[in-house]
Amino acid sequence: MDGYVRRTEPGAPGARLTAVRRWKIAKWIYMRGWRLGQVFEDLAYDTDDDPRLREALERIESGESSGIVIARLHQIGDSLAQAVDAIERIRAAGGAFASVCDGIDLSTPT
After folding, report:
1. From residue 13, how far is each of 20, 64, 77, 90 by CA, in Å?
2. Euclidean distance between CA atoms 50 and 79, whole angstroms
3. Which residue in 49, 64, 58 sits closest to 90, CA to CA?
4. Are 35 and 3 in contact (CB under 8 A)?
5. Cα three-residue angle 57-82-32, rounded to 5 degrees
6. What is the pLDDT along the chain (110 residues), one digit of tens a residue?
């Protein structure tokens, strides 16, 4: 499973928050007995584009990764439509999606 972090503010507070999110993702993955692949990080305050998210989605679509874990749901896009599109791409490729702090785990039936 890969992790994805979207850093939304520059400077030290943003860096600390990113580190906390990375830790939560890694802990969640390891607690399930999975292996952490790559952790992708976009600097959302720099651009409206999320190239690292696209790269993470492409890894799932190519079979290199089994899914994406994020810390909070709002990290996956700027809008609900963008988030739904990303999650649909993950599911269409047979990948799993989880949002740690929101209690969302689409790798399970519940």
Report:
1. 11, 32, 21, 30
2. 12
3. 58
4. no
5. 50
6. 999 998 776 666 677 888 899 999 999 999 999 999 999 998 766 556 788 999 999 999 999 999 999 999 888 877 788 889 999 999 999 999 999 999 999 988 76
Contacts of 35 (CB under 8 A, 6+ apart): 1, 29
What span, in angstroms and rounded, lies between the C-alpha atoms of 52 and 43?
Answer: 9
Identify the bridge partners of residue 45 per DSSP, sorted by sequence position: none
d(CA 68, CA 91): 10
The amino acid that residue 49 corresponds to is: D
